Request: fold
Amino acid sequence: MANIKVGIVGFHRHSKSYISFILDGLVEGIEVGAIYDHDKTKRKTANDLYPDIPVYTNYMKMMKSGRVDIITTYIPS
Reply:
């Protein structure tokens, strides 16, 4: 069975933890398909930390890319 590809919306310490859990194999059946954040600095950091994961400047393009099956949001309340 293929992994579910999750898109991460909002990049900060909580989303970095979630990404680490997935990459370390602690969450079975899930892979990180893409990351989006509106902040240019956070996008650069995400790209530097995870060069194999596409980082988007537009969340709608990320959702339409075919790289994600679902999204999870990590935005300030």
User: Anything to note?
Assistant: The mean pLDDT is 94. The first helix runs from residue 13 to 23. Strands lie at 4-9, 30-36, 55-56, 70-73.
